[in-house]
Design goal:
The chain has 186 residues and is mainly α. 87% of the residues lie in helices and 0% in strands.
Length: 186
């Protein structure tokens, strides 16, 4: 898995943005009569899963490695970080499975798209809150430990706020952050 952390910045951009976009574009260009519209849901869910797995695997390896490099590392913070990376990954895979089942059921004509979307909103909205909060904390964690390793001291927010902002716009921010992670890792 260390090769995953040493990948170039454009690898993450392709895996986290370009590949999901191509899958989504291909799904929308399949004629609806071929899969009764189910391909749109399958490609959309698959694009989200691939994109989110690239992000969360990068966060996992980056946070794990960077926190090991600092002696003043808090075990309690790393446990919270681990849970806030693992929980969204589990939820993403669960949502993908549910979306696959729902798209197959819709393809058979057993439930309408409107009924499925309204029923799924009750679950998707609370899950989105979990995703947003966990992603913000994980980006904060990785940005702080990256700057702490570079400065060889415990970084303050004023030291790493730009790294944090770059990570918040992940597909673009990885172009600035990943070369520094590669430098620290090697």
């Amino acid at each position: 898995m260390s090769k995953y952390l040493l990948a170039r910045h454009w690898h993450y951009f392709v895996g986290g943005f370009v590949l999901p976009f191509v899958i989504l574009f291909a799904g929308f260009n399949v004629p609806f009569y071929v899969f009764n519209g189910a391909m749109v849901f399958i490609s959309g869910a698959l694009a989200v899963v691939i994109s989110e797995l690239v992000v969360y695997l990068w966060l996992w390896k980056g946070g794990q490695y960077l926190s090991e490099r600092i002696e003043a590392h808090s075990v309690k913070r790393f446990r919270l970080f681990k849970w806030l990376v693992i929980l969204p990954m589990i939820l993403i895979l669960a949502v993908f499975i549910v979306w696959l089942i729902a798209s197959l059921v819709m393809g058979m004509g057993k439930i309408s798209m409107a009924n499925w979307l309204m029923a799924s909103l009750n679950v998707i909205i609370p899950m989105q809150v979990i995703f947003v909060l966990s992603r913000i904390y994980c980006f904060f964690y990785v940005a702080k430990w990256l700057k702490s390793v570079e400065l060889k001291r415990n970084a303050k927010f004023s030291d790493f706020y730009m790294d944090f902002l770059w990570l918040l716009i992940f597909p673009i921010g990885i172009w600035r952050i990943q070369p520094r992670v590669n430098k620290v890792f090697s």
